[in-house]
Amino acid sequence: MISLNNKLREFFTQPTSIYGKPIARRLVLGVAFFLLFMIILSSDFVSDKVSLEVGQVSDRDVIAPRTVAYVDVIKTKKFEDEVLASVANVYDLDVTAIAKAEENIGAIFSEAKQVVGNKELVSAEQKKEKLQQGLQLPLPNNVLDGLVHLDAASMINAEEQSKSILRKFFQRGIRDDDLDIARKHIVIETEEMGLDKRVESVIAGIGQALLKPNFILNVRETDKRKQSAINSMEPVRETVKKGQIMVRRGDIVTPEQIHAVEELGLSKGHVNEMRIFGLAIFVIAVMIIILGYMYRFAYPIYTNDLYLVLLGLITLVTLLLGKAAHYYSDFSAPIAAGALLVAILIDARLGVVISIALALLFGIIVEHDLRAVSTVLIASLIGVYSVSKMAHGYSLTKTGIIIAGVNFVVIGATGFIEQLNSAQILMQGVQGIVSGIAASVITTGLLPYLENAFNITTPLKLLDLAQPNHPLLQRLLLDAPGSYHHSVLVGNLAETAAGYIHADPVTVRVGAYYHDIGKIKRPYFFVENQAGNENPHDKIAPSLSTLIVTSHIKDGVDLCREYKLPQIIIDIVQQHHGTMLVSYFYKRATENEHSECIIEADFRYEGPRPQSKEAALIMLADACEAAVRSIGKPNKNRIEATVRKIIRERLHDGQLDECNVTLKDLNVIGDVFIRVLSSMFHTRIEYPDTLKELERRKAKNGNSNKQSSAKDDSNAGNGTDSEIGVK
Q: Which GO terms describe its molecular function (predicted)?
C-alpha cells in the first residue's frame, strides 16, 4: 500500500512542462473530470421518452420529472396581436396642405385664363395641349376640356368652388386609408351643387387631383408606442410542477399537452441539446473559476497534480452524495462534507471556494431551488470556518453539530420567507440536521483513506503524533530524558510565536517534539542527558565529536521514517540546524598544531537550510532555549541579548535565506522568545531551610563551578554548542 501511494505521488507530482507529458496528463484529467461531472449533473436531462400525438388516446400517465415554467408561444403571439391592435396610430397634421392646394388651384385657373384668352390658339385641342404644357400638375382630359370651354364668369365660379370644397375636406382631415373615399365624396358633393356639367367636371377633377392626406402617419412615434406596449406585456407562461400528471391514461392528447411534454424534453426521444450545451458551459465556467483562484492565490496547489486529482475526486464524490440524497430530500444532502475534506486535506481558503462551487453545481441537481442551494452554501462555509480552527480545540464531531444547527436555522428562515406551513418546515429542518451530522460522519470516514492514499498530513494526524504515549516519544523520554524536556520547552516556545507570524502552531509543536529524536542513538554525547560531570567529548578528537553531534540529524530522519512520520516532520528534523557551524569543535580544531589543514565545511551540518516558517521557527527556538539555559544567572537583559544575538547570527549566516520569514517576523519572534524565556528562567528565591545545604555544596565544588560559570558566559550566544555538552 505504501509503495503504491509513493508511486501515485511520484506520478502526479512531476513538474509540469509545456512540451512534455505532464501538461497532456493534466488536460486528460481535466477532460475526464468534466465528463464525469456532466454525466452526474445531466442524468435527469435525459428522462424516459414519451411518444404521443395529437388526438391519440394515452396508454399511460405522463408525470413531470421536474418543475418547468415555459412560455406558450401561440397564446403569447395572440396576446401580442391584441395589444398591438389596441395601440392607435399617431398622425401629424400637415398645416400647409390647404395653402398649397389653393395655390395650385390659382395657378391652374390663371394658366387656363391665359390659354383661353390667347387668340393664336384656334381649336380646342390646341388650347388643351397648351394648357397641359403650362401646368405642373397633370389633369384628366375631361377637366382640361371643361377648362378651355368655360367663360370668364364660370371660370371664376369654378375656382372659388374648387377652393371651397378642398378646404372643407382638408379641414375634416384626410388619412392615407381615407383618400379614395374622400375623392368619391368630392364627386358626390359637386353634383349636389347643381352647377353646369362642365363646371362640375372641372371642380370634381381638380379636387380629386389636388386632394392628398394631410394627416401624416408618424411611424417613429407609432412604433415607439407599440414597442412600449409590447415591452409592458408579460408573455403567457405555463408552469408544470414536478410530480404533476400532464397526461392521464385514457385521455385524448391535446396540442397543449404535447407542447408541455416537448418543453420537458419527453417527446419522441427528443434530447434538448441546448440544455446539455448550457450545462457544459456552466460546468466549464465553474472549473475555470476554481483553477483561476488556485493559479492566482494558491499556486503551489495549482502546480500539484496530486492535489488536483484529490480535489476532483472530492467534488465528484460530493456530487454523487448530493444526487443520491436528491431523490429523497434536497435538504438531506451532505454537500458540506466536500468542503470539509478540501479544507482539512488541502487548504481552508480553497475550501471556501469549493463551498461556492459545490453549491452552484448542486443547484443544477435541485432544479435551481434557492432554499436548498442557500442551505448547503451557508452550511459548507460554516463548516470550513469550524475545521480551520481545529488547532485550537475544534473537532469534526463539534463541526457536525454546528452544521446541523445552521441547517435547521437556514431552512426554517427560508421556509418562513416562502410562507410554508410549520409541519413542512419542521420536517425539512430535521432533514437538515441529519445532513449536518452525515457530513461530519462522511468526512470522518473518508479522511484516513484519503490521507493515506494521497500522503497528506492533516492537523488531526499531527495532533495524534503529539500524544505523549507515542512509541517514539516514549523512547525519547526513557533514553534521553533531558532531550525530551528540552523538546517540550522548545515546543512551547515555538508554538507561542507561531501564531504571531502566521505559521501552523500544530506543525510547530509536533516538529519541536521530534526535532532532536536522533539523540536517542547516542544520548550521553549531549549535555542535557549527562547525569554526571564527565563529558565524553573531552576524550575524542574535535572532528569525531562533530561527526557524532551532526549525525543526530540523519539518525532522527531514519527514526522518523522507521516510525512512518509525515514528511513535514521529517523536513523539520532535517532542517532545524540548517548548515550551521559547530563552532566550539571548530575552534578546538583550529587551536591544534595542524590548524591550516582544517576545512570549515567539515564542521557544518549537512542541511538543508530551513525551507518553511515552521522549520525556521524551530531552529531559532531550539538555539535560544539551549543558549538561555546555559546562562549562569539569567535575567531579562541577558536573555534579551542572547536571543537577539542568536537570531542575528542565523540571519547573517544565511540560514534564513530559503524560507519566507521576514525581518518583521524575526523581530516579533524575538519579542515572544524574550517574554516566554524570561518567565521560564526567572530567578527563584532561596528558602532559609536550604541555605546551609547550598553553601556546603558550593564549598565542595569550589573551583569546578567557577570554571563552568565562565564557560557558560562564553558560550551563551551559541545554542548549537550548548546542546552538545560543551558548556
A: hydrolase activity
Give the Cα separation of 480 and 528 in Å (integer): 8
What are the cell numbers at 119? 387668340
Cα 618 from Cα 498, distance rounded (Å):
10
pLDDT in the model for residue 48:
54
Separation between Cα atoms, residue 144 and residue 667, nearest integer Å = 114
Q: How open is the CA angle 455-459-463, to the nearest 5 degrees?
A: 110
| The dihedral sign for the CA sequence 104, 108, 110, 114 | positive
Q: How many CB atoms lie within 10 A of CB 105?
A: 23
Q: Write the burial class of residue 131 (CB in 10 Å: 0-12 exposed, 13-18 middle, 19+ buried).
A: buried
Provide the 10 A C-beta neighbour count for residue 273: 10
Measured distance CA(259)–CA(271) in Å, rounded: 15
Contacts of 616 (CB under 8 A, 6+ apart): 610, 655, 656, 659, 661
Domain boundaries, the chain: 23-42+273-456, 58-72+237-264, 91-217, 461-681
**Which residues, including other chains, have CB under 8 Å from residue 623's CB and lie 6 or more apart?**
646, 650, 718, 719, 720
Residues 279 and 353 sit within 8 Å (Cβ to Cβ): no
What confidence score (pLDDT) does residue 390 get? Answer: 56
- 450 Cα distance to chain centroid: 24
pLDDT in the model for residue 594? 66
Name the one residue in this structure whose C-alpha cell is 470539509.
340
Residue 304 near residue 291, CB atoms below 8 Å = no
Q: pLDDT for 218-230, tens place per residue?
A: 788 888 888 888 8
Range with lowest mean pLDDT among 154-168, 468-482, 634-648, 709-723? 709-723
**Would you say the C-alpha torsion 608, 609, 614, 620 has a positive or negative sign?**
positive
Distance CA 272, CA 117 (A): 85
pLDDT given at position 664: 94
DSSP 4-59: HHHHHHHHHTSPP-SSSHHHHHHHHHHHHHHHHHHHHHTTTTS---B---TTPBPS
Return the ∠ at Cα 618 (arms to 617 and 620), rounded to 5°. 65
Architecture of domain 461-681: Orthogonal Bundle (1.10)
Q: Give the number of other Cβ atoms within 10 Å of residue 59's Cβ.
A: 9
Alpha carbons 355 and 359: distance in angstroms, whole number: 6
- Say how many CA atoms lie within 13 Å of 224 toward its Cβ: 6
> Where would I find the beta strands (DSSP E) of 172-323?
215-217, 237-240, 245-247
Q: At 86, is the secondary structure helix, strand, or coil?
A: coil
Q: Which helix (H) or strand (E) is 668 found in, with range?
A: helix 663-680
Q: Which of 174-188, 628-642, 689-703 has the highest mean pLDDT?
A: 628-642
CATH 1.10.1760 fits 23-42+273-456, yes or no: yes
Phi, psi of 314, deg, nearest 5:
-60, -45
